[in-house]
Amino acid sequence: MSYSTAAPSPTVTLDDVRGAQKMLSGVARVTAMEGSRHLSQLVGAPVHLKCENLQRTGSFKLRGAYVRIAGLLPEERAAGVVAASAGNHAQGVALASALLGVHATVFMPKGAPLPKISATQDYGAEVRLHGQVVDETLAAAQEYAAGTGAVFIHPFDHPDVIAGQGTVGLEILEQCPEVRTILVGIGGGGLAAGIAVAVKALRPDVRIIGVQAEGSAAYPPSLAAGRPVPIENPDTMADGIKVGRPGEVPFGIIRELVDEVRTVTEDQLSAALLLCLERAKLVVEPAGASPVAALLSGLGDIDGPVVAVLSGGNVDPVLLQRVLRHGMAAQGRYLAVRLRLTDRPGVLATLLGVLSAADANVLDVSHVRTDPRLRITEAEVELHLETKGPAHCAEVGRALRDAGYTVID
């Protein structure tokens, strides 16, 4: 679906983004642009990765947070700031506040990853846990601001924040001046809106594609309705883009300047995260991997060079373990198999020998000998195996059946 590419919204201009770039000099890193041979071969055009996962605090969020807080009046700074975030904006606000000498209180969802909570506290912010999703946390933070006089620093719905995020777009044009297509993840929309303002003002021919998680995609129905529309129960492992309603300011910009919004599945996000880790040697959180997931999903004919923005790398190690296993399963490189065998000495060792001969790596074995479903002479074994892909999975299955095992699942 394509949308109008009319002139930029008056709420944020190219001059605003350029002003933000000067303000961020010496504060935010000019992050690397890395080529990806694997993705280039897959897409049929040069693909580059804009590594905001290597930004200070691990995401692009420092840019917008710093610009917003730096623009406050002295009396506003004295009252302190308050923010709400699943983690990346929280860390951006915490560090920006510390650099500017402002007290920060940050509300985070109760399910926020522990590393993000700890990092936010380490940067000097006071952390309060409230709500299950970002929208509930936002409401709590806004209530706190109204009651205390602290200035609320919205994660995406403010012109200063969008201008700060737009500096990513200026860097893309400087690092890859021949770029033809930019893919960027969308949660509330601040990053995509900022990039669109900067890029479309200087290179209106560049195609900008926004990417959302399928289970948390508020922009497609909102764009169809012509206004921000909330969705119920957003659900995705990509907590960085798990937002139930677009922001008013970024929505207007994205509607005008972003050419298309795509959605990706959880399997595609998992596969993208795994690819970034294996092929690019980059640790990327699911939200940050969403542009790569869109490339893996197949975009059809796409003009290159392509730049995919890796927006963040703050992934919970527990989630990373689950996602990597899920990504391996999605690629046919992880096989769970349950089978029944005769319960006698040496049978399990023989089974493992069959799997070794089939070149399957055993990750885990669960051996059940007492169960009402089993005969007295039977046992059931569940194995988790690392394989080399779908064809190898089929070979392992055939090897087990040829050896006389009853494969149940």
TrEMBL record:
What superkingdom heads the lineage?
Bacteria
| GO MF annotation list | threonine deaminase activity
**Similarity comment text for this entry:** Belongs to the serine/threonine dehydratase family.
- Keyword annotations from UniProtKB, A to Z: Allosteric enzyme, Amino-acid biosynthesis, Branched-chain amino acid biosynthesis, Isoleucine biosynthesis, Lyase, Pyridoxal phosphate
On assembly, the entry states: In the native structure, TdcB is in a dimeric form, whereas in the TdcB-AMP complex, it exists in a tetrameric form (dimer of dimers).
Is the keyword Lyase assigned to this protein?
A: yes
EC number, as in UniProt: 4.3.1.19
> Lineage of this protein's species?
Bacteria, Bacillati, Actinomycetota, Actinomycetes, Kitasatosporales
What pathway, per the record? Amino-acid biosynthesis; L-isoleucine biosynthesis; 2-oxobutanoate from L-threonine: step 1/1; Amino-acid degradation; L-threonine degradation via propanoate pathway; propanoate from L-threonine: step 1/4
Which metal ions or organic cofactors does this protein require, according to UniProt?
pyridoxal 5'-phosphate
Q: What is this protein called?
A: L-threonine dehydratase catabolic TdcB
Give the matching PANTHER family.
Answer: L-THREONINE DEHYDRATASE CATABOLIC TDCB (PTHR48078:SF6), THREONINE DEHYDRATASE, MITOCHONDRIAL-RELATED (PTHR48078)
Q: Which organism is it from?
A: Streptomyces gibsoniae
- Record has Lyase as a keyword: yes
**Which InterPro entries does UniProt cross-reference here?**
ACT-like_dom_sf (IPR045865), ACT_dom (IPR002912), ACT_ThrD-II-like (IPR044561), Ser/Thr_Dehydratase (IPR050147), Ser/Thr_deHydtase_PyrdxlP-BS (IPR000634), Thr_deHydtase_catblc (IPR005789), TrpB-like_PALP (IPR001926), TrpB-like_PALP_sf (IPR036052)
Q: Where is the ACT domain?
A: 336-409
Which Pfam family name is an example for this entry? ACT
